[in-house]
Specification:
The protein is an alpha+beta fold and 349 residues long. It contains 13 helices and 6 strands. About 5% of the residues have low confidence.
Length: 349
C-alpha cells in the first residue's frame, strides 16, 4: 500500500525575505570582493595572440579510394599514413619538445609596437617581461634558496649546447613552449601556429618566425637524402674533371713532343693516351649528367608551402578578460551569500 506524500513546495516569498534579512552581508562583502577582484586581475599583464596557417606539399600522397573516403569521415587520412616520410605532419607539434628547435628562436630579432624595445627574443623574455607582484615575490624567495646557476652555457657564446642549458635558459625555453601552440589538422593536414606575447607586434613576429622555422625544418628533412646524393655526385664530378684534365695535358704534351715521330711504338702510346683521355672524358660527362640529375632531385624533393592565413598584428588583447572576471566573481559571491542566507531552508529540506 503506497503512502500519500505531499508534494514539496517552495515558498519564494520566504526565500526572498531570508535573503533580504542578510542584505548587510551583500553591502559589506560585495564591495570588498569587487576591490580584491580588480586588484588581482589588474596585476596580471595583458597579452596578445597571433596565429597563422599553412599547408605543406605532401610527399607522395596516396588515395585510399572508397576506403580512404570512409576513413576520412572518421578523422583518419590514408595519405598521411602511407607517406614515405618517417616524420609525418602529425608529428610536427612534437618539435616543440626539442631544445634545438626552441632555442633557435632565441636569436629572433623583435621590436615592440611602440619601438622602445629592440633586441632578440631571448633578451626580451629575460628583461622586458611583466609579471604579477606575487610572482616577483615568489621568484625572489626561490632565488634565496636556489644554488648559484651554472654559467657553462651562455647565451650566444661559442659552443652553445641546446641540450645542456643553464637554469635560466631552461626556464626561458619553457616559457617559449608555453607561448607557442602548434596543431595539425588530421583530415586536411593544415598546420596552425598560435603565439602569445605581451606586445602585439612581437606576437606577430614570433608567429611568422615559427612558421619560417618550421618550413626550414620540413624542407631540410625532405631534401636531406637528395642533398647528400648531390654532394656525393659533386665530388665524383670534380674528381672526374681533374682526372680528365690530367689525361688531356699528358696526351697534349706527348703529342707535341712526338709530332714528327713515325715509329709505331710512339704512335701506339699516343693512341693509348688518347683512348685514356677519351675514357676519362666520357666518365666526366657521365658524372656531370648524374650531378645535374641530383640537382633536379633536390628541387623535386623541396616541398612547396601555401600560406592559408598570415599572422596579423592583434588590435585587442586576448586576455585577461578583466570585466568578465570581476563580474563572474561578484556573481559567484552573490550566489554564495544567497545560499548562506537560506541555509536553514536547505537543511530542513
Amino acid at each position: 500500500m503506497s503512502e500519500n506524500k505531499e508534494p514539496m513546495t517552495i515558498d519564494i516569498g520566504a526565500i526572498i525575505k531570508m535573503i533580504w534579512a542578510k542584505k548587510m552581508l551583500f553591502v559589506k562583502i560585495l564591495p570588498a570582493v569587487f576591490i580584491l577582484s580588480c586588484f588581482y586581475i589588474l596585476s596580471i599583464p595583458r597579452y596578445y595572440t597571433a596565429d597563422t596557417k599553412m599547408a605543406p606539399e605532401m610527399d607522395n600522397p596516396l588515395s585510399g579510394g572508397t576506403l580512404g573516403d570512409i576513413a576520412s569521415t572518421l578523422g583518419f587520412n590514408f595519405g598521411e599514413m602511407q607517406t614515405s616520410d618517417a616524420i609525418t605532419p602529425l608529428l610536427y607539434p612534437n618539435l616543440m619538445e626539442d631544445n634545438k628547435f626552441v632555442t633557435d628562436l632565441f636569436k629572433i630579432n623583435v621590436e615592440s609596437q611602440d619601438g622602445n624595445i629592440k633586441c632578440n627574443y631571448y633578451e626580451y623574455l629575460k628583461k622586458y617581461q611583466k609579471y604579477p607582484w606575487w610572482n616577483i615575490i615568489k621568484s625572489f624567495v626561490s632565488n634565496l634558496f636556489t644554488p648559484k646557476e651554472n654559467k657553462d652555457a651562455k647565451k650566444g657564446g661559442t659552443g652553445f649546447d641546446p641540450y645542456r642549458l643553464s637554469r635560466n635558459d631552461d626556464n626561458i625555453a619553457g616559457a617559449i613552449r608555453n607561448k607557442i601552440k602548434l596543431n595539425v589538422d588530421k583530415k586536411t593536414g593544415v598546420i596552425s601556429i598560435s603565439t602569445e606575447s605581451q606586445d602585439p607586434l612581437i606576437s606577430k613576429t614570433l608567429a611568422d618566425s615559427v612558421r619560417n622555422k618550421l618550413q626550414d625544418f620540413i624542407t631540410e628533412y625532405r631534401t636531406n637524402k637528395a642533398r647528400t646524393d648531390l654532394e656525393y655526385y659533386r665530388k665524383l664530378r670534380d674528381e672526374a674533371k681533374l682526372n680528365y684534365e690530367k689525361a688531356r695535358r699528358l696526351y697534349g704534351s706527348y703529342a707535341d713532343a712526338n709530332s714528327e715521330v713515325v715509329l709505331e711504338s710512339y704512335r701506339a702510346k699516343q693512341n693509348d693516351l688518347e683512348n685514356d683521355m677519351q675514357l676519362k672524358y666520357n666518365n666526366y660527362t657521365a658524372m656531370v649528367t648524374q650531378y645535374q640529375a641530383a640537382k633536379a632531385k633536390v628541387q623535386e624533393r623541396t616541398p612547396a608551402f601555401t600560406m592559408l592565413k598570415g599572422a596579423n598584428v592583434p588590435i585587442r588583447p586576448a586576455g585577461p578578460k578583466r570585466m568578465f572576471f570581476v563580474i563572474a566573481m561578484l556573481l559567484l559571491t552573490t550566489i554564495a551569500i544567497s545560499i548562506y542566507a537560506i541555509k536553514d531552508i536547505i537543511i530542513k529540506e
